[in-house]
């Protein structure tokens, strides 16, 4: 009986030892699992931080690219608008250099037409010159060339070039009294201002 009691005690002792061992093992396993979880969480946190940093970098790059795109788009729009305006101006004033070259010839025609004809031969030559002069004037009008009105008009420094001033009671002050050389406009651009005498 005593032997049985000893055996029972030994079994209980072994069971308790086994229980303690199991508990220690369980604690160790929990400790290992906790460490592993902590490591995993740290790793996840590091990955999350790195991902957030990368997202911030990419967003910054995207913002830079968007700004660059908008600037390029605006530059291109400005370039296209400037090109269109330049083309329109070139088309509108395409005859300017030709008109500028022809004006001295018109001046010479006008001076020649003021000559008094003494015989029929001179009269016929003057008539022919006047026909050529009228043809030139008509061709220039088709291109948008106009003579600047001067005599009797108020002096305008954009349209007239004053070369003399005179006191004249027949005219209001600052009025064009006489025109020495005709001025011309091509559409809305002054090609040559009128050379005039102005009342004081």
UniProtKB/TrEMBL annotation:
Family under the similarity heading: Belongs to the GrpE family.
Lineage, broadest ranks: Bacteria, Bacillati, Bacillota, Bacilli, Bacillales
Superkingdom of source: Bacteria
GO biological processes: protein folding
GO molecular function: adenyl-nucleotide exchange factor activity; protein homodimerization activity; protein-folding chaperone binding; unfolded protein binding
Annotated segments matching region Disordered: 1-52
Composition bias type Acidic residues, residue spans: 36-46
Alphabetic keyword roster: Chaperone, Cytoplasm, Stress response
The species this protein was found in: [Anoxybacillus] calidus
One Pfam family it belongs to: GrpE
Record protein name field: Protein GrpE
Function: Participates actively in the response to hyperosmotic and heat shock by preventing the aggregation of stress-denatured proteins, in association with DnaK and GrpE. It is the nucleotide exchange factor for DnaK and may function as a thermosensor. Unfolded proteins bind initially to DnaJ; upon interaction with the DnaJ-bound protein, DnaK hydrolyzes its bound ATP, resulting in the formation of a stable complex. GrpE releases ADP from DnaK; ATP binding to DnaK triggers the release of the substrate protein, thus completing the reaction cycle.
InterPro entries, per database record: GrpE (IPR000740), GrpE_CC (IPR013805), GrpE_head (IPR009012)
Subunit structure: Homodimer.
Predominant location: cytoplasm
Localization, UniProt: Cytoplasm
GO CC term, one of those recorded: cytoplasm
């Amino acid at each position: 009986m005593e032997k049985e009691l000893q055996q029972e005690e030994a079994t209980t002792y072994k069971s308790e030892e086994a229980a303690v061992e199991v508990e220690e093992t369980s604690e160790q396993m929990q400790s290992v699992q906790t460490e592993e979880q902590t490591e995993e969480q740290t790793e996840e946190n590091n990955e999350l931080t790195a991902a957030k940093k990368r997202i911030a970098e990419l967003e910054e790059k995207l913002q830079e690219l968007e700004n660059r795109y908008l600037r390029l788009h605006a530059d291109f729009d400005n370039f296209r608008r400037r090109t269109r305006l330049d083309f329109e101006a070139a088309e509108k004033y395409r005859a300017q250099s030709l008109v500028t070259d022809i004006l001295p010839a018109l001046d010479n025609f006008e001076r020649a037409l003021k000559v008094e004809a003494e015989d029929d031969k001179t009269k016929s030559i003057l008539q022919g010159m006047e026909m050529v002069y009228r043809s030139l004037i008509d061709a220039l009008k088709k291109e948008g060339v106009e003579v600047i009105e001067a005599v009797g008009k108020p002096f305008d420094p954009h349209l007239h070039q004053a070369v003399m001033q005179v006191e004249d009671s027949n005219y209001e002050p600052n009025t064009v009294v006489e025109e020495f050389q005709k001025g011309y406009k091509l559409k809305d651009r002054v090609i040559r201002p009128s050379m005039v005498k102005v009342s004081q």
